[in-house]
């Protein structure tokens, strides 16, 4: 979003200063292209970086995290904020309209951000997907490459249900089958303690226990809006 704002404003003739908080341009795109199967997404970033590099009225400063005082001192007439978001750790998502109590402040619970930053759990891991797109299967594949025994759990009746509309569904299911990653559908989380995750069938309400050393939540994201 920040790159596109800088590109579009520069194309219109504005004098633009782009302050990138990280050393690498591209926001979450640059992070997600490191995940299995997503390398092609780099084109979303690379095309915009190429366009900006040809605009002499756009200046780019990397590794420049700004405070409110910094922004005000700069004195720009207009400020565009594109500060991104982060994955929730508490299980709040499409099927859980409140945090899952057992996930709050639990050191055994990880997010996709943790995986991208190389904070990867070991052993038996359950990926809890309440997002419904490709992220759950991508997280499961990444964990598999690190030697984890992975189970993909979702409250939905299908793995990655939204991928039916993007034609990715058969590819996702085929990849999970190739990796022998077990999907458990139509089950939600009830409790998590020690190395046992208790889940419940969303239709029959029968419960079962899954042994796991860690849970990776792929549920929803929160905006990084402190600067705003």
Short description:
The protein has helices at 2-11, 27-32, 42-53, 68-74, 112-116, 135-145, 163-166, 169-179, and strands at residues 16-19, 58-61, 85-87, 109-111, 124-129, 149-153, 182-184, 187-193, 196-201, 207-211, 214-218, 221-223. It is of the alpha/beta class and 228 residues long.
What distinguishing features does this structure have?
228 residues; alpha/beta; elongated
What do you see in this structure?
The protein is α/β, with parallel strands linked by helices. Helices cover 29% and strands 24% of the residues. The protein contains eight helices and twelve strands. The chain has a five-stranded parallel sheet. A three-stranded antiparallel sheet has the order 8-9-10, with no helix packed on it. Helix 6 links the parallel strand 5 and strand 6. The radius of gyration is 20 Å and the shape is elongated. The mean pLDDT is 97.
Number of distinct helices = 8
Describe the main β-sheet briefly: 5 strands, parallel
- The beta-strand count equals 12
What is the arithmetic mean of pLDDT? 97
> Largest beta sheet: what is the strand line-up?
4-11-5-6-7
Helix content: 25-40%
Helices and strands in order:
Blueprint lengths: L1 H10 L4 E4 L7 H6 L9 H12 L4 E4 L6 H7 L10 E3 L21 E3 H5 L7 E6 L5 H11 L3 E5 L9 H4 L2 H11 L2 E3 L2 E7 L2 E6 L5 E5 L2 E5 L2 E3 L5
Parallel strand pairs: 1-2, 4-11, 5-6, 5-11, 6-7
Antiparallel strand pairs: 3-12, 8-9, 9-10
Helix pairs in contact: 1-3
